[in-house]
Design goal:
- It is a single chain.
- With 85 residues, the protein is an all-alpha fold.
- The chain has helices at residues 6-17, 26-37, 55-81.
- The longest helix is centred in the last third of the chain and has 27 residues, at 55-81.
Amino acid sequence: MPGQDDAEREFDLRWADDAAHKEPSARARMLAARWKENPPEPVPFRGDPDRVASPRSSWLSTALVLGCVALVIVVLGYARFRGPY
């Protein structure tokens, strides 16, 4: 509201926060209506055990990352060694 100073705006915010009834957001109302007809299936806290990566793939990805880091270090060292001298 352009005509209000900070004290009036603060009063309006306090008044709105202290309201006895707070209306849910449009998304909350939409989900409540959708879930009333078709409730969502429960989802476990952890992922499906079938979809967990195998130990081999985790080691493979770790080796790949470390190999790339080592390659970058070697290339940068070679570039510095061959520098402008």
